[in-house]
Amino acid sequence: MVEAPQRKRCVVAFATRERQYRWSVELPAGASVAQAIEAARTLAAAAGEDARVPWDAAHVGIFGEPCSRADLPREGDRIELYRALLQDPKEGRRERVRQARAVDRRLKRSV
Fold it and tell me: In terms of pTM, does the model score above 0.90?
């Protein structure tokens, strides 16, 4: 009979525009995403890296898939903390198109 592992290893990741942060954590087999984040927070604080990380406010996911902090990650999972978007991507695209059309109209008038 094969026994279930008593511990699991995961990576907690967060990225800013300037830098990526990654903390490898070892957890009890039944640990949640929230517990993994708390373990990473402890490692980050010890390294002086915790100031820019929105530990409590960030949305989270596992390998790019949104999840709850109560979910249970598996061995080897990458738990990601997501930054808030500064602008809705669709609205940003619409604004860029509006600006491009305005420039295009001005160019046509000047010709």
Answer: no
DSSP codes joined into one string, 85-96: PSS-HHHHHHHH
Gap between the Cα atoms of 106 and 14, Å rounded: 43
71 within 8 A of 10, measured Cβ to Cβ: no
Determine the residue type at 11: V
Place of tokens 């929230």: 34
Q: Which residue type does 71 have?
A: D
Q: Does domain 7-86 have CATH number 3.10.20.30?
A: yes
Sheet order of strands, 59-62 included? 20-28, 7-15, 78-82, 59-62, 65-67
The residue among 105, 82, 84, 85 whose CA lies nearest residue 93 is 85
pLDDT tens sequence across 92-102: 889 899 988 88
Domain positions in the chain: 7-86
